[in-house]
Amino acid sequence: MSKNNDELFKNVISHAKEYGFVFQSSEIYDGLSAVYDYGQNGAELKNNIKAYWWKSMVQMHENIVGIDAAIFMHPTTWKASGHVDGFSDPMIDNKDSKKRYRADQLLEDKIARYEKDGKTDKAAKLQTAMDEALKGENLTALRDLIVEHEIACPVSGTKNWTDVRQFNLMFSTQMGAVADDADLVYLRPETAQGIFVNYLNVQKTGRMKIPFGIAQIGKAFRNEVIARQFIMRMREFEQMEMQFFVRPGTEMEWYAYWKEARLKWHKALGTDSKKYRFHDHTKLAHYANAAVDIEFEFPFGFKEVEGIHSRTDFDLSQHQKFSGKKLQYFDNDLNEDGKPVGNYIPYVIETSIGLDRMFLLTMINAYEEEDLSEGDKTDSRVVLKLHPCLAPVKAAIFPLTKKDGLPEKAKEIMDSLKLDHNVIYEEKDAIGKRYRRQDAIGTPFCITVDHQTLEDNTVTIRHRDTMQQERVAVDKLDQMIASLVSWRNLL
């Protein structure tokens, strides 16, 4: 990571706290590692990202519906899905620092350093060797690569490593009033299984015809040993997932469709397309026949923000086997012989995006430090150039002074706008300072009420990105804001 990128990331983290976007969980008790709370502006931004995803998935597709499944599920769910026996990461401990790391991430960081230093051959060789070790689940080979490439512990600086071992990531707890009779249940490590176990309920009650999708936004929990890179890797996080059920044999067409559709969704926010790339999986999960990640170039390198997976019929077949309930679909469409296609277990294309990672991506992408110096006068500002649809606050209303009826007029304007838009009122400090505060949280419009407003019912509206000001009639404000923050601009 270059010094500039390192500095940018630290500044974004600091900005997120200072302006009410993200706080360390339980901070007054010295915090809880890898757990974060979203503040007043963070909650609004997060909700707007969710709304963008939900509208683009559910509202814009007649054949996709949304559900909200419970976090607790019958424990057999996780046996059927393979999480009880196979949901683990290869971990390695440093004997001096007593810190535990994911072996593959230590190697990925080394590959990134090789690439940054122009050692592309070394990077490619290490990538191939690591992929082979992961595919063959060869834990000894992973440790050998860490030793061979002289990877040191980031904390102790030593290379005194243990063997690599598998570590299960699920949180478990008991359900029941009496401890002895309690059943072992898990906090879900993904939201997808809630969709699969409800597949039949949704298909029948919604009279859904294949191809169709089920979308869900919800919390998931993983006992991540490595907590780093702020909200990039957390123990409690949120996912936005959609499972798309298709006829076997058509899955690769739909895989290609969703791969392109999801990248288009990201780019619609105005992000530089060079910051995104596809990364095909070399080691496929046991249930997949194709998988790709949409990666974004964070200050610490390209990292996954969304996965598109062709999951075959693995999940529904497993749940049919473990539950004893038929999860087949009867396809009435005619085949080449003019007969109904008949019964089959649908194949599934999954799109899965980490909401917290998308939040971080959005903050990093929007954060700008601008030098506004002119001649001998030095000036600067920090601005979040968020897409107006995502901005936590759409407009801020300022009375120029706290007297002469200006606050009353400003509050009257606020009351007329707040039914349709999230707006705030602010009267403290000089007008310039108020502008800077709103720039820092990404507010697209600042509306100033002055003495002229009382005469002709016009206000000064200032635009965040250009800082240009114009005089506008009060009765035009709603339409002006609505046109900029309309979901039509994205969808």
Automatic annotation (TrEMBL):
Known catalysed reaction(s)? tRNA(Gly) + glycine + ATP = glycyl-tRNA(Gly) + AMP + diphosphate
Provide any one GO MF term from the record: glycine-tRNA ligase activity
The answer to whether keyword RNA-binding applies is no
The entry's substrate-binding residues are: 102, 190, 237-241, 350-354
Q: Which CDD domains match?
A: GlyRS-like_core, GlyRS_anticodon
Q: What is its EC number?
A: 6.1.1.14
Q: Which residues cross the membrane?
A: none
User: For ATP, which residues are the binding ones?
Assistant: 222-224, 304-305, 354-357
Q: Which Pfam families match?
A: HGTP_anticodon, tRNA-synt_2b
- The broad enzyme category this protein falls into is ligase
Could you tell me where this protein is found in the cell? Cytoplasm
Q: Which UniProt keywords apply?
A: Aminoacyl-tRNA synthetase, ATP-binding, Cytoplasm, Ligase, Nucleotide-binding, Protein biosynthesis
Aminoacyl-transfer RNA synthetases class-II family profile domain location: 150-388
Q: How does it assemble?
A: Homodimer.
Its function? Catalyzes the attachment of glycine to tRNA(Gly).
Which family is it part of?
Answer: Belongs to the class-II aminoacyl-tRNA synthetase family.
UniProt-recorded name of the protein? Glycine--tRNA ligase
What phylogenetic lineage does the species belong to?
Bacteria, Pseudomonadati, Bacteroidota, Sphingobacteriia, Sphingobacteriales
Name the gene behind this protein.
Answer: glyQS
